[in-house]
Amino acid sequence: MNLNNDKGSMSTASSSVTVSDQFPAGLRVLVVDDDPTCLRILEKMLGTCLYEVTKCNRAEIALDMLRTNKNGYDIVISDVHMPDMDGFKLLEQVGLEMDLPVIMMSADDSKQVVMKGVTHGACDYLIKPVRIEALKNIWQHVVRKRKNEWKDLEQSGSVEEGDRQPKPSEEADYSSSANEGNWRTSKRRKDEEEEIEERDDSSTLKKPRVVWSVELHQQFVSAVNQLGIDIFHTYAFALMYTTEAVPKKILELMNVPGLTRENVASHLQKYRLYLRRLSGVSPHQGNSFISSHSQEPPYGSLSSLSGLDFQTLAATGQIPAQSLATLQAAGLARSAAKPGLPMPLVDQRNIFSFDNQKLRFGEGQPQHMSSGKQMNLLHGIPTTMDSKQLVNLHHSAQSLGSLNMQASAHGNPSGQSSPLLMQMAQPQSRGQILTETSGGQVPRLPTSVGHPILSNGAAGAMLARNGIGENSRGTGYNSVSQTSSVLNFPLNHSAELPGNSFPLGSTPGISAGMSTLTTKGGFQEEINSDIKGSGGFMPSYDIFNDLQQHKPHNWELQNVGFAFDASQHSNSLQASVDVTPSVLVNQGYSSSQRNVQNSNVSAMGKPIFSVGEGSEHGIALNVGQHLNSLLVDNSTRVKSERVTDTSCQPTLLPQHFGQEDLMSAILKQQQDGLGPAENDFEFDGYSLDNIPV
Amino acid sequence: MERNQQLRRQLASMRQSLFDQGHLDEQFILLEELQDDANPNFVEEVVTLHYRDSARLITTIERALEKSPLDFNKLDGYMHQFKGSSTSIGAKKVKAESTQFREYCEAGNGEGCLKTFQLLKRDYATLRRKLEAYFQLARQAGPNEIACRPK
């Protein structure tokens, strides 16, 4: 009972009575405050509450203490203003690393500061002078936190710091997984085990622990921002990606020696959980859906058929008529698909432009010059501006072709595959659009896989938004949104498997074959080419299949989650939309993609367009990503729903024109820059390929 | 005994006057309530801590106020620290003045800052003197004789 140890920077004053079964007596509290007076008073007060108090006058030291003794504390009370480290930083770190409840305190009672504390994840905010009455109740935060953890464990299967109950948490986890229909794969379990292992590390020292210092974490965050990973809202995706491609990429961006992908993955996971906690998203959202769907046949839940098509194709390994149709749709008829959705068209253009460069490069086409330059540029990182401009240029360049395409599509609402082909043929005759498109598709898939991984979530959000914004068209868009989520699967899968990207990348070769076919020019021949193309595509699909087989349930998860988001949580989605831009803005090469999508947005519909133009680039970007996913959807989905929404088109056309005006303006500005622009594109394609590797 | 009782009366009146003159607020009472067998001189301990720590801050603020373009951000930061400490011992007047000081900082009113700081220093010193006298007397009165509210 000797408490007068106020001279040490930190000291433990365990109150005489520590009866653990008399909770909250014995609650282990770490108090951090640079003010010795406050610290002493708090220590005394907490001791009076029969808590076990450890005090510390520096945030850095506190963090070290927390790290070295991960399970040594139940709750942290920290001052906001401290010289060595801002209390909010400590709060963030604690939230990331140990997930302890943190109470912030300050003499500053301004609303902004209190708000900042709350938004940073503080479970409470005490105004100084802190009263003992407030401290008597702090144990409730510990209880609440644990309760939530249990919930998380049971429902999402994500293992947070279980602190004192690691074993029960494991059990709960597994049993729950069984209940939920095995949506978690063995891989996922392995991750969990890894995490658990990591938790034990502090005691067993099996492997060198990576200490996520503030600096390291900042590096991590900036890498994440650079990737534009919207961990925040697409945590279902993040669940998957934490294990593979994204951590890898983050690791590359961080470029910290000694850091392993597993370190990053684990940290990413925590970061995601941390963000999710901040967002207040209930852990049930995605999961409950998952569980409900898991009972159904995997794809049945997906209303849109595209997913099914994929599956069948992959499973059989054959190319049935349907698959042909799908493939055609995917390959040439993408534009045709647009009858329902105008935006896909534009997207296609953009996509093609990406890939086109590759094709042209290979074929040595006159339009685009400096192939050699392209090579060089590949290694460089294009600036956002450049990429954007480039995209715009491409877009504008192809807009002419697209116009024709659209017109034809407009005329033929029937949506038969043949008409589609016809349409495609027209563009071809005009230029090489066809070839480009055909070539472009395959590569495109990997691209979408690479960067936008998380953007899919954003896309979903955007969809929801659209639905809200345009009530009149609501139904049409809704269906789209669902499909989009479906489409996402294959992409995601590819991203997950490191090897996937390669096969996809190899597809360019296939695409080249297609292009040659298309060059023949005849409509009928085109059809043939389509078939071939489909053959070429098949492999890629198979790859997807493999992926699916590996992680079939993850798939579902994501899909379900998205559909859910789009339809029901429109509000939250909107909010998310706002948030994401900031994250996305920082991206490096992905920005080019976004820009492209941006243009897409304009084509898509008024509301979205206005968003892009009026407010911020960032928002537009999100929309764009969404569109991308839509695009993909279309290609797959075409077969089933091609003819769905003809009504939308009229509106679309005019808007498209508007966009073209924009594009033309941009074009004028950047006519000079064609060469460099292309290069950037090239880079994009390559970078995308590389990512999953 | 007689003398001790007298001392205690004197102690009580000193204490009361600190409240009456607005030097202390109820936070001081809360500190007194924290005093127990384990820490019979807890209040004095905390007050001593406060003055040891805050003297440094006062000097820092004084120096910062001598700079020709005043760095109001810094001044505000220092004063925030100072206020936190003062608040925790219930130094009512000083707390009010530091609040005022910070408002002047926000307004960019250097004149107001200087004037308020002079007031603050005066009250800060006054309280210190009075509290020191009070604790000295309390020690004379013996442990457990400090005015304690029944729990």
TrEMBL record, chain A:
Residues the record lists as 4-aspartylphosphate modifications: D79
Function statement: Transcriptional activator that binds specific DNA sequence.
The protein's name in its UniProt record: Two-component response regulator
One GO cellular component term: nucleus
Subcellular location: Nucleus
Residue numbers spanned by region Disordered: 150-202
PROSITE patterns: RESPONSE_REGULATORY (PS50110)
Claim: Nucleus is one of the keywords in the record: yes
UniProt KW Transcription regulation keyword: yes
Species per Swiss-Prot/TrEMBL record: Citrus x changshan-huyou
Classification via InterPro entries: ARR-like, CheY-like_superfamily, Homeodomain-like_sf, Myb_dom_plants, Response_reg_B-typ_pln, SANT/Myb, Sig_transdc_resp-reg_receiver
Alphabetized SUPFAM superfamilies for the sequence: CheY-like, Homeodomain-like
Keywords from the UniProt entry: Activator, Cytokinin signaling pathway, DNA-binding, Nucleus, Phosphoprotein, Transcription, Transcription regulation, Two-component regulatory system
TrEMBL record, chain B:
HPt domain sequence ranges: 39-134
Localization: Cytoplasm, Cytosol; Nucleus
One GO CC annotation: nucleus
Phosphoprotein as UniProt keyword: yes
Subcellular location, principal: cytoplasm
Keywords: Cytokinin signaling pathway, Phosphoprotein, Two-component regulatory system
Modification sites for Phosphohistidine: H80
GO terms of biological process kind: cytokinin-activated signaling pathway; phosphorelay signal transduction system
Keyword Phosphoprotein: yes
InterPro entries per the UniProt record, alphabetical: AHP1-5/YPD1 (IPR045871), HPT_dom_sf (IPR036641), Sig_transdc_His_kin_Hpt_dom (IPR008207)
Gene Ontology molecular function: any one: histidine phosphotransfer kinase activity
Top-level taxon of the source organism: Eukaryota
Domain text: Histidine-containing phosphotransfer domain (HPt) contains an active histidine that mediates the phosphotransfer.
Job description of the protein: Functions as a two-component phosphorelay mediators between cytokinin sensor histidine kinases and response regulators (B-type ARRs). Plays an important role in propagating cytokinin signal transduction.
Name assigned to this protein: Histidine-containing phosphotransfer protein
Organism: Citrus x changshan-huyou
